[in-house]
């Protein structure tokens, strides 16, 4: 861990938490953990109010200056919004210029780019609060029944067209068009009704919900599909509502697509699809993403400046080389050809990466990963085998299996002792972390496990394998997608041999695995407990869910029962039903303490029932960056926090050039 | 040839769709892994929009008739017509394969000639030894070893076909030189195995011919050694050389797919692998289809060449 505390920053930060009205209560429960990180101010005025300093004269990168002199673009003053966001870099003001080299694996890796440069409508700060970002400010009405957002006047798309409330209304229009995108995300359907949008003026709009949407800002801060802006001036030509049908048809045919929806899908998507789509991110793409080197160049219209008035970003260019082979990514890194990247590495690359640091001229960070851990899920709603289903559904059986897992050994052998030894539970970085759950039945104890199984009447046969009530051998047929966890599972097989339970490991290819997961057709499977930093908002693997077939792999038929209103599947027991009630109630809970209470109930239920048999806790994630880069900060990982985006890559710069 | 290609297209299309699920399955899996929500309604819309709900023969018919019109279907992961994606990659695949073939020919011709005329000399043993090692080492292994050596001694990874400065630049002399600087690695990597085989064939054939009475007769009549060699035995020994072009070419193309993935070449290989993994069926199908056609053409060319070189073939 890098411990570099800047006293001034801590002071500024505490000042900020004290003063700002926009900051929300605990976001990750990470307050103070990343206090040496950067700070974002909504406007120059706010910066002045809170620090007493003034933002200097606006300045721009040399290559942009040249473009201004050649008359290719407007002056910096005209390009920036009236009130740009002000950014206090983590270490120091940077130098302009340079290229960041990275790799990506093509479109299946689009999150690698999105997380890096994606702009969240509002953003989480590394301090755990929510700050204005794209939106200059907001008002919350009736505890979240309505939200008013104010955009930045004079802010521009990367092609120079203004960003206005019309772009937000257009985003909503396409996201509610059933011919195009289908129904909007569930967060816009809180209380069972679709939200209402209203344009207030050119730079403000209002979203009204049927019931209070308590976590809407958190949702926006997590990016995902909720960007709330789409470049209407560019996209409307492909949209029959704004262009004549013949014109659209002509465009579709020229481009070689079958329908206008297909063409729109392509034109709308960025960064991995259409390089021409105007964006608001710090870098925009300038060539075809399927090229060997996919280039992103600095956006002359980017709307953030540092505290001295220098327009961000500092780095001129980002280049992504398509590398499909994971070993080649590591190869690139150790030969110093990767400048800023965490994707493509696994923790087992860590020793190799560390060893070649000097040679390759880079640094390596090991970042905490908020994850529930690798978990074995027994299917408690197994069909066609009632004897086994009853056994799997018995919490005593699951507890015995859990006690017979030597987590210390797994951690030592496969995570170099760097992982967390614990039961599958909410991650430590989550505000809902429950130490009791993390410890529940996690201590290796073969004798007790054997005793518990004896008590269940499962007697060992001559071959040492226990027999079920119909005298069949007690075997568990386990699916492991692509065999990712086989080394660990081989150990588990050894442990469970000692308690007379035979583990059969199957390694189906990923899509077969997915299909069987969707159908709920398996005895057991291994997957991580997808709980992340905010299991109350995203990745809710702790409850079956009628809207999500993949939720809760421990009881797939429960989800199907909920989805079909009881027509198919298996009716969940009362305790499981309560989980689903909590799941449905959460979006409307505005009081964070109440939220904690509900999540504590979830925690209690799971530590008593032990539907999740954890094998290993999360291991750190590896991040590689050029040793010559400044303003590189640690960041909270995880899906909800948007990962590397929270280290604000717009601030990184090359120290010597 | 046409029926072969048609049957090929059916086999290709069916095999690609044999795995359970489709592109949407892997797409949804990817979205979920990133914590994004994909509603069942959205999946249904996409299924219909991109025709996943149609039965296989309908999809096949649409694809194969499209190909005759120059429309190779749609790549789901790139949201683009396949035609826009494959040409530059197929071109480079062809470039690498043909250069490798030429390299294989030149090297194996020279070495084969030398080892036959200098049988059991040190040079022969050495050439044979290296040839067998080349034959026994899988291409990707050789690629890995070369990469390791270049990293260990030069501190950089050798891969790709262009340096960054030239990759997106228009063609120029400098870009060509840059290409040549990179091209030798894949050529050596995927060429060695074929070279070894051809050396052995040429050597064995030449040895057969060299002992034949007509050679002895020519020698006694005082014709120079070199002249005899090139006038008769070499020409006959070359026949299997040409008749094997077909399968050498085929193995070069399929071998280059794996080599390309390891060496990260901008050829068909890496994109094909990715397309297969994500079940991007028209993209993968078109790649495999074209690679197959190249192989079929290679065989055809070798048949024609053989007929030209060896008049006896024409009477059979």
TrEMBL record, chain A:
Q: Which GO terms describe its molecular function?
A: peptide transmembrane transporter activity
Subcellular location as annotated? Cell membrane
What GO terms describe the biological role, i.e. biological process, of this protein? Answer: peptide transport
Q: Which InterPro entries match?
A: SBP_5, SBP_5_CS, SBP_5_dom
Q: Pfam families annotated for this entry?
A: SBP_bac_5
What's the protein's topology in the membrane?
Answer: Lipid-anchor
Q: What is its main location?
A: membrane
Gene3D superfamilies documented for this protein: Dipeptide-binding Protein, Domain 3, Periplasmic binding protein-like II
Q: Extract the signal peptide range.
A: none
Which residue intervals define the domain Solute-binding protein family in the entry?
130-530
- One GO term describing the cellular component: plasma membrane
Query: In which domain of life is the source organism classified?
Result: Bacteria
Recorded protein name is Peptide/nickel transport system substrate-binding protein
Automatic annotation (TrEMBL), chain B:
Annotated InterPro entries:
BPD_transp_1_N, MetI-like, MetI-like_sf
Subcellular location, in the record's words?
Answer: Cell membrane
Name of one Pfam family that matches: BPD_transp_1
Provide the ABC transmembrane type-1 domain boundaries.
90-306
Keywords per UniProt: Cell membrane, Membrane, Transmembrane, Transmembrane helix, Transport
Domain of life, per UniProt, equals Bacteria
Record Gene3D superfamilies: MetI-like
Could you name the Gene Ontology cellular component terms for this entry? plasma membrane
The record's principal subcellular location, in a coarse class, is membrane
Which regions span the lipid bilayer?
86-114, 126-151, 183-202, 236-263, 283-309
Q: Which GO terms describe its biological process?
A: transmembrane transport
**What is stated as this protein's family in its record?**
Belongs to the binding-protein-dependent transport system permease family.
PANTHER family hit by this protein: INNER MEMBRANE ABC TRANSPORTER, OLIGOPEPTIDE ABC TRANSPORTER, PERMEASE PROTEIN
The protein here is known as Peptide/nickel transport system permease protein
């Amino acid at each position: 861990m890098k411990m570099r505390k800047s006293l001034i920053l801590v002071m500024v930060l505490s000042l900020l938490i004290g003063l700002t009205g926009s900051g929300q209560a605990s976001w990750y429960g990470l307050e103070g953990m990343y206090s040496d990180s950067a700070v974002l101010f909504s406007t120059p005025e706010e910066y002045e109010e809170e620090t007493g300093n003034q933002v200097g004269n606006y300045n721009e990168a040399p290559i942009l200056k040249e473009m201004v002199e050649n008359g290719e673009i407007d002056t910096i003053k005209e390009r920036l919004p009236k009130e740009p966001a002000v950014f206090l870099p983590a270490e120091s003001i940077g130098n302009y210029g340079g290229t960041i080299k990275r790799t990506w694996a093509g479109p299946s890796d689009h999150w690698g780019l999105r997380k890096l440069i994606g702009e969240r409508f509002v953003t989480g700060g590394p301090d755990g609060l929510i700050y204005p970002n794209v939106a200059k400010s907001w008002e919350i009405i009736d505890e979240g029944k309505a939200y008013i957002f104010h955009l930045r006047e004079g802010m521009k798309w990367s092609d120079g067209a203004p960003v206005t409330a019309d772009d937000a209304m257009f985003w909503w229009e396409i996201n509610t068009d059933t011919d195009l995108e289908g129904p909007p995300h569930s967060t816009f359907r809180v209380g069972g009704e679709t939200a209402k949008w209203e344009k207030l003026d050119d730079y403000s709009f209002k979203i009204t919900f049927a019931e209070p949407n308590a976590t809407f800002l958190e949702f926006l801060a997590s990016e995902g599909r909720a960007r709330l802006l789409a470049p209407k001036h560019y996209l409307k030509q492909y949209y029959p509502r704004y262009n004549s049908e013949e014109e659209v048809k002509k465009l579709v045919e020229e481009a070689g697509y079958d329908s206008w929806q297909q063409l729109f899908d392509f034109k709308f998507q960025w960064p991995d699809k259409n390089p021409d789509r105007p964006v608001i991110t710090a870098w925009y793409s300038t060539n075809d993403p399927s090229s060997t080197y996919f280039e992103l160049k600095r956006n002359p219209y980017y709307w953030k400046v540092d505290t001295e008035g220098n327009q961000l970003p500092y780095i001129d260019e980002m280049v992504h080389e398509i590398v499909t082979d994971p070993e080649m990514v590591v190869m690139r890194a150790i030969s110093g050809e990767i400048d800023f990247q965490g994707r493509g590495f696994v923790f087992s690359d860590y020793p190799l990466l560390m060893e070649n640091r000097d040679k390759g001229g880079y640094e390596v960070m090991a970042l905490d990963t908020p994850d529930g851990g690798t978990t074995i899920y027994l299917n408690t709603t197994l069909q066609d085998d009632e004897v086994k289903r009853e056994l799997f559904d018995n919490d005593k059986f699951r507890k015995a299996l859990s006690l017979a897992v030597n987590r210390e050994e797994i951690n030592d052998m496969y995570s170099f002792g760097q992982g967390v030894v614990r039961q599958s539970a909410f991650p430590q970085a989550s505000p809902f972390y429950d130490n009791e759950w993390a410890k529940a039945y996690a201590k290796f104890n073969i004798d007790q496990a054997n005793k518990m199984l004896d008590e269940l009447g499962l007697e060992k046969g001559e071959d040492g394998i226990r027999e079920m009530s119909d005298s069949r051998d007690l075997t568990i047929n386990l699916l492991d997608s692509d065999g990712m966890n086989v080394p660990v599972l081989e150990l588990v097989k050894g442990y469970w041999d000692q308690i007379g339970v035979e583990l059969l490991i199957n390694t189906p290819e990923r899509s077969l695995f997915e299909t069987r997961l969707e159908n709920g057709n398996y005895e057991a499977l291994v997957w991580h407990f997808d709980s992340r930093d905010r299991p109350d908002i995203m990745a809710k693997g702790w409850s079956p869910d009628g809207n999500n077939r993949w939720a809760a792999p421990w009881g797939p038929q429960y989800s199907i029962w909920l989805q079909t209103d009881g027509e198919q599947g298996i009716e969940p027991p009362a305790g499981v039903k309560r989980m689903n009630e909590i799941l449905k109630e959460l979006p409307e809970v505005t009081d964070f303490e109440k939220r904690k209470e509900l999540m504590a109930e979830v925690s209690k239920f799971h530590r008593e029932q032990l539907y999740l048999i954890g094998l290993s806790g999360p291991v750190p994630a590896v991040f590689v960056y050029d040793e010559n880069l400044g303003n590189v900060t640690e960041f909270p990982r995880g899906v909800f926090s948007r990962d590397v985006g929270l280290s604000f890559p717009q601030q990184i710069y090359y120290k010597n050039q | 040839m046409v029926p072969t290609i048609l049957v090929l297209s059916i086999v290709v299309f069916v095999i690609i769709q044999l795995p359970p699920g489709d592109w949407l399955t892997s797409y949804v899996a990817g979205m979920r892994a990133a914590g994004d929500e994909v509603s069942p309604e959205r999946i249904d819309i996409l299924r219909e929009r991109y025709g996943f709900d149609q039965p296989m023969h309908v999809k096949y018919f649409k694809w194969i008739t499209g190909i005759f019109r120059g429309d190779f279907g749609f790549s789901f992961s790139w949201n683009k017509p396949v035609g826009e994606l494959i040409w530059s990659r197929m071109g480079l695949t062809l470039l690498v394969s043909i250069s490798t073939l030429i390299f294989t020919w030149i090297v194996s011709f020279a070495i084969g000639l030398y080892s036959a005329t200098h049988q059991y000399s040190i040079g022969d043993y050495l050439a044979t030894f290296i040839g067998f090692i080349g034959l026994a080492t899988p291409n990707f292994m050789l690629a890995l070893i070369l990469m390791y050596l270049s990293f260990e001694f030069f501190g950089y990874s050798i891969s790709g076909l262009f340096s960054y400065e030239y990759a997106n630049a228009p063609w120029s002399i400098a870009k060509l030189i840059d290409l040549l600087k990179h091209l030798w690695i894949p050529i050596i990597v995927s060429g060695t195995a074929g070279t070894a085989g051809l050396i052995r064939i040429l050597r064995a054939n030449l040895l057969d011919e060299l002992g034949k009475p007509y050679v002895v007769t020519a020698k006694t009549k005082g014709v120079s050694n070199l002249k005899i060699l090139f006038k008769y035995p070499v020409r006959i020994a070359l026949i299997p050389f040409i008749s094997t072009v077909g399968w050498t070419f085929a193995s070069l193309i399929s071998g280059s797919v794996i080599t390309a993935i390891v060496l990260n070449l901008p050829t068909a290989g890496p994109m094909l692998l990715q397309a297969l993994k994500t079940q991007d069926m028209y993209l993968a199908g078109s790649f495999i289809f074209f690679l197959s056609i190249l192989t079929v053409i290679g065989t055809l060319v070798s048949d024609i060449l053989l007929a030209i070189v060896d008049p006896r073939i024409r009477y059979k």
